[in-house]
Amino acid sequence: LPRARPRARRRLRRGRRWRRGSGQASWGELTVKEGVVVSGPTILTAGQGDRVIIKVISDAPDTLYVSGYDVSTDLVKNVEGGIIFYAATTGRFALELQNAQTPLGTLEVLPRE
Known about the structure:
Structural class: mainly beta
Number of strands: 9
Helix content: 10-25%
Mean pLDDT: 80
Strand order of the largest sheet: 3-9-8-5-6
Largest sheet: 5 strands, mixed
């Protein structure tokens, strides 16, 4: 019993850290085969301050890159990989596989009113 309480507090603190901006999350899941997106949206829409979650499964190892935010992650063949970040800047940003130089779609971040 004494150990359960500190763990519960840590979870609560960790949860607070994720709540920023609107507290909403925008996400997209993409599947890439032979350099072509076979499933998932081509335009991901998020609001300014939202937490953005992009998950990708690729049939070849590569690097997922979000221009404008300069965030990237390495992808392993046939294993889901992803990026999580906060949408602080409004505009349209390209999603691409860097090594294959393949555009995957666009992230559109809309301003909060």
